[in-house]
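User:
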Amino acid sequence: MDETDYRLLSALRGDGRASISQLAAELGITRATVRARLSRLEASGEILGYSVVLRGDVEERGVRGVTMIEIEGKGKDRIVETLGGFPEIRAVHTTNGRWDLVVELATDTLSDVDAVLNRIRLVDGIANSQTSLYLSTRRAKRPAPG
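Assistant: Predicted structure:
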């Protein structure tokens, strides 16, 4: 990937629905170049897909945090699928080290956190968990590639 690819990906992160014409104008390159680069990035697997960002995904809920989960046995795929269905869970990450999964949570109240943690602990195969709540968030600025 070169600087133009990074700029193209950055533009798509800002507006995943931008047309090829819009992207070309923003980047100062031809539509054919944008089309060819998108095709190459998709074919190489650099772009895996496009998604929708819902209002609920960007609105801050009152209480957010992460729960680290230890799994006993071999039920990881089933547990990941089960947790993915909880509306309070934004993402489930597999990891290495002490914990098997890292789960991102978002709820409106501490009582809601308590309730979702109780439901998580009832999932068959979850042996242990530890939750940390976010107290404040500062958005990191991504440096320009280069």
